[in-house]
Amino acid sequence: MEKLGGKIIKAVGGIYYTETAEGVLPCKARGIFRNKSLSPAVGDNVAVIADDNAEPVIDSVEERKNYLVRPPLANLDMVLFVVSSCEPAPNAYIIDKLISIFESKDIETALIFTKTDKQGCADISDIYSGAGYKCFFSDMTSDVREIRAYAAGKVTALIGNSGVGKSSLMNRIFPELESATGEISRKLGRGRHTTREVCMHPLDGGYIADTPGFSTVDIERYGRIPKEELADCFREFAPYIGKCRFSDCAHLREIGCAVTEAVSSGVIPRLRYDSYARLYSEAAEREKKY
Fold it and tell me: Worst-scoring range by mean pLDDT, 57-66, 118-127, 215-224?
């Protein structure tokens, strides 16, 4: 019996494909995880018991530094958030909601704006680059080497709404995916690369996890932030936190609020602040219910 360290790179139907020094092993999880209401997830660092006479088993899961419920992903360094400049048009509220969740979990966010050959997006991309988020711009002919270099050595998830061109981008980052899925796709009569589960692909000392495209209703499952912690998830607010007239300022309609004064003067973009106010209201309503 041998115990190996490894990382789960794919999970399908209760089988966890785990990268180890012995190669990628299809593993089942010990029953003890069900008793603890813990499900191993892609990105988990695990210990695997490998026996010549039995299938490999995940024996333990190391403590996670972060976790997304949907898609189930653990131990991320970064999210590459794919946003279409058109068809579908960018939705600032959705972008800000997800970015705030990633901020709360200490996950770096970079944005990739796609379909820029069809429509420019400087009006919205400037807001995020101004807040300190790395932004990339992509169309079907764009070079992806800069994106690959930025993701090198990191455990990254490629996340985006359905229809933004995420799968096309993934195929250009990993051309081998296009050739591997092409024949199957032709037989099934659907797109060349439609992601149906989370799968990590090695990239220059790190990994990029391809994830299913989400719909608007899915975003609730990414995570929830208490209203008192929400302001800390908006980077533009940082210089003004602690400078309000009241120590418990919610940064909404209070007199002497440094944040709303910065919004009024144009230092904090109104678009971002409106997202904050909406998210705060939603969090307050949710906390009333529970």
Answer: 215-224
Backbone angles phi, psi at 168, to 5 degrees: -60, -40
How far, rounded to the nearest angstrom, does the alpha carbon of residue 85 sit from its chain's CA centroid?
19
pLDDT in tens, 156-183: 999 888 788 888 888 888 887 764 444 4
| Residue with token string 């990739």 | 112
Measured in whole angstroms, how far is the alpha carbon of residue 112 from the centre of its chain? Answer: 12
User: In the predicted model, what is the mean pLDDT of residues 180-207?
Assistant: 62
Contact 163, 84 (CB under 8 A): yes
Provide the 3-class DSSP secondary structure of residue 263: helix
Q: Indicate the CATH number for domain 67-220.
A: 3.40.50.300
Winning range, highest mean pLDDT, from 1-5, 85-89, 157-161, 173-177: 157-161
Q: Would you state the pLDDT for residue 224? A: 80
Instruction: Give the dihedral sign, CA 218/219/222/228.
Output: negative
- All structural domains of the chain with their residue ranges: 2-61, 67-220, 227-289
Please state, in angstroms and rounded to a whole number, the distance separating the CA atoms of residues 260 and 246: 13
CB-neighbour burial class of residue 29 (10 A; exposed 0-12, middle 13-18, buried 19+)? buried
227-289 to CATH, choices 1.10.40.50, 3.30.420.40, 1.50.10.10, 1.10.60.10: 1.10.40.50
CATH annotation of 2-61: 2.40.50.140
pLDDT of residue 255: 94
**Gap between the Cα atoms of 227 and 254, Å rounded:** 16
**Rg (alpha carbons) of the chain, rounded to whole number:** 21
